Amino acid sequence: MKQKIVIKVSMHCDKCRTKALKIAAVSQGDHGVISVALEGDEKDKVVVIGERVDAACLTSRLKKKVNYASILSVEEKTLI
């Protein structure tokens, strides 16, 4: 089952954005993450779509590297 995770992240510069996207993309190793994107007016939301992605673990890793991260939503998506 696919899920969409939206995490609000504190991003001060382009380097922070790049770092957050890299962390989200490799958070689950070789499997799990299908796509990673930035959303929001200030590009401060990381959107991760994938299977078997641990939202709490991902948020924890982002907090350690980027200083602030909080889960906004986790939605289950059924495959059609």
UniProtKB/TrEMBL annotation:
Q: Which InterPro entries match?
A: HIPP47/16, HMA_dom
One of the record's GO molecular function terms:
metal ion binding
**Domain HMA as annotated: residue spans:** 2-74
Which top-level group of life is the source organism from?
A: Eukaryota
Q: Gene3D superfamilies annotated for this entry?
A: 3.30.70.100
Report what the protein is called. HMA domain-containing protein
